[in-house]
Write the structure tokens for this entry.
Amino acid sequence: MKFKKDINGLRGIAVIAVVLFHFNESWLPGGFAGVDVFFVISGFLMTGIIFRGIEQESFSVLKFYIARANRIIPALAFLCLVLLIWGLIYLEPLDFRVLGKHVGSSIGFLSNIVYWSEDGYFDVASHEKWLLHTWSLSVEWQFYIIYPLVLVTARKFLPVAVIKSMILGGTILGFIFCVIATYKWPSSSYYFLTTRAWEMMVGGVCYLYPFSFSNIQKKQKVLLEWFGLSLIIASYIFINKEVAWPGYLAVFPVLGSFLMIQAQRSDSFITCNIVFQKLGTWSYSIYLWHWPIVVAIYFYSLNDVFIYVGILLSVFLGFISNKYIEKINFKNNFNSLINYVNCKPLYMVWGIGVIGSVIFLTNGLNFRSIEEKQLLNSNALSAISDWNYPEPNLQIGSHNIRFIKGSSDKNILFIGASHIEQTFPYVSGINTEYNIYYLTEGGCFLTPSYTSKVNLDCSNIKNYKDVIAEVDFERIVTSLFVLDVNLPKAEAEKKEQLDLRISEFNEFLYFVKNKSKKVFVILGEPKGDEFNPTLSVRHNLKGYIAIEEARKAYATHYGAMQSITKMDNLLIIDPIEYLCSDICMVRNEHFKYYYKDSEHMRPWYAKKSLGYLDQIFNNG
């Protein structure tokens, strides 16, 4: 295909948006939509390659795969190799283990699936994942694998005109599915090919159904380009990460990209200026390098000056990678099927993949550490995934319940977020007459105005009245932990929202008190970076915090308690009184961590230490 300067410039517009968003999302709240622009461009180019080959009866699926491998793998493999060498020197085994896993999944183009599987309430922060951005490369590669196979197979039975219509119809159906799936399965929809394929197919439609312009219609082409650019820029500015994505809103950057490509303006100042042309040429490598730099700034808590340094460094490394790695001409044509195994990028995949796998399987080469550090690392590793909260075993209306059978018809309701869930290992081991109902949703608060940071569906606990209407509860237990989570940063808005939550929580207390004999409110447990096994090992943190420090973390809670309604048979439980002396320990003498992260107890520790919950079950 002839080099198209307008498409190259559009790449530049896309990579600028992604880089600015990742370095400081407030600069361009919807900059992540640059990835969607890349998807359209990719679909346009790949469809052109495939259809020209099909129409000329010269298309080879294997040659197509090799060409894509030669284009994508070398720069990615080099980045992975650099990160592995750097990680070997500077990362603790726990972090190195995670890097090994992500290197293997990235070079194997399965990282979108791996990151989806890790995407949950207890997920490691995205800014600790050095190769998180490779999810989009995995989506593209999966599209490259499937798309030509479908088209070549279809061509054996159908004329080209029918195949074109199929792609158009498939694009429309794909968009409809994307809209539905984004709201039904938001996490998988973000990462999976099934909800992203339509974006690349829009690029295919753009190639298959080009707009026709006469020589005197230059004005129409300019208007089309500007309208497309306006849609893209509006997406960057007015969309933000709080919206369900891709969803129906993805149509704006996708349609904008479609229109800009259709404008066919190879002489446009917008896309053909030297800055966008250079950035477009280096865009793939800039994209590869910018995210690890973003992570490094977060990982080492560098100040804001490094944001600007990081942007410049991303462009520089992108230029170097493009010049010295992307432009290497690997062999693209092999005489026989068996010779395709000599494709050098495939050796890179195997080599880097094996190294990453070994690092993961040996827990970050933990054997390199001294014996005491090995024990600490092993204990931390076993802690971070240690959680015991079963799947629901009872349904009341639309509510998911964990139910523990007692020996009478008396009932207790535990309602709240993960800090109620973490009591389950202890409570499930109590021999009690009460039937116990757990109505929970991690990351949620039961007040109507609360919204979670990751768009969780909190209806399971917010609609608690439905459950209380069905079951007669003698006692109700809840937690105050999430009261001040996800509040606005501006002080005035923060106070307003907090006051509203306190007021709504009081309404909850009035309601449940009228429906039960006793209500228990559990305050927060000791928390902090010291309790987090990963951070403890990474930064060599001390094995305790002072009780004053533990209480200081809950200053908002203690202040709110002054506004919480005082009523008979409302009992407050403060775990810090029971779990701490003058200090709060984070692990025992055998380096066994009490928590799985900064604020959630491990099951064994809950069973050992939550005796203060016995008062909930005592008669009287």
Notes: The beta strands are 394-396, 399-404, 411-416, 435-440, 475-479, 518-522, 544-546, 570-573, 583-585. The longest strand covers residues 399-404.
